[in-house]
């Protein structure tokens, strides 16, 4: 038993193991998953700020079994985070290699209010409270039934005592971590920030004044399913997924900070989405959305220095992009 967190069973020292992180939605599983990622646990690719592998969103057990088999073949130690795995994890046990389960518990009223505040369906306090209670009961039943290593995380104490939480996590997974990983994990645990990216895929966007950044920066640009049309005086979409992509090259890598300048040719605010790619895969989970004012706008992009590509997805009206004249500038 770890102070403030509980380890049940005997964690394996084997290199081959599978970590599954579960709990009530809005109950702290994203923080716990991100912390394990900072400590070096592979939870998949194309993860967003909720740290969920898109290939584990499905509830189809046959699909999940296939995905587990693929991941077992790819790497000895890996895992996934998905709150709704609680409802079918027992059925997957025969397919999970050396399972190590993490159950996250958070103050139930905090979980309830977070669900209400984040709900798109006007969830009531009563319904959210009832749902959170059911999730906790399911976790308690699984803890009673299962005879495997389990780590019970007290979320509220974890954000107060980061080092003890980190120690419980490293003990449970038998991890050897560097001082840098430990510090990155401490920095990641921030209840005031909410959802956030880990250091390996960090990005931030801030609107700035374009005139404060006059120096051009040459970054390779590729138009995807969008092309200039001189007759129409703008960019015309040629497919269903138009984007302007700026990407690294061996001779000209993406800087850790740069400014993206563009013009909104319409007379109204126009939607823009930025997609960030750190492993040559774009993901809707790693996106920044913004309404762009008419005229010139500029945005400072700040990353960890490992950005491979950034895609600008403009709003399209009558096949024409509202956004034109893209430039990259030095900070």
UniProtKB/TrEMBL annotation:
This is Sulfotransferase family protein. The lineage of its organism: Bacteria, Pseudomonadati, Pseudomonadota, Alphaproteobacteria, Kordiimonadales.
